[in-house]
Amino acid sequence: MERLSDYIQGERVVRDLRRHAPQALEALARDLEQPLSPPLEKALARSLGDRRVPDFRSSEVLMPAMMTTFAVSPAVIAEEELAGLEATCNRCSEVGRCWQAMRDVAGAEACRSFCPNAGAFMGQDG
Q: How many Cβ atoms sit within 10 Å of the Cβ of residue 12?
């Protein structure tokens, strides 16, 4: 169980960054390899999931990582289909979960359960 102080610490940092340094918050969200304290990582994942990082575009950060997870090259996807996959990614309700999975380098099997583009990435009709 997450300790209350950890929760508050993570949420406070994210709130302060959102208010005073939104570019720094977005930079943290865009860097999937940046070491973060567990409370900050959880708070940032919640903020992404709640769409409280306004300039974060999951298709720019998460979709390339997810395509790597599924061993898919964007070069083999038709431009119109890629645009559709990006739109789906940007509308996804699992952004926080996906961000956490990509930071954890989760495998394709784990991502299949929540990624709306998984079927396309696996060569299936979504």
A: 13
Cβ atoms 14, 40 nearer than 8 A: yes
**Mapping DSSP to helix (H, G, I), strand (E, B) and coil, where does residue 116 land?**
coil
What stretches in the chain show pLDDT beneath 50? Answer: 1, 125-126
Whether the predicted model's global pTM rises above the 0.85 cut: yes
Q: Can you read off the two tokens belonging to residue 91?
A: 């509308």
Distance, CA of 86 to CA of 64 (rounded, Å): 10
Sign of CA dihedral 126, 84, 62, 52: negative
Of 70, 80, 84, 78, residue with least CA distance to 112:
70
Domain ranges of the chain: 1-55, 57-126
Alpha-carbon span 70 to 111, nearest angstrom: 9
Residue pair 51/106 in contact by the 8 Å Cβ criterion: no
Which amino acid would we find at residue 9? Q
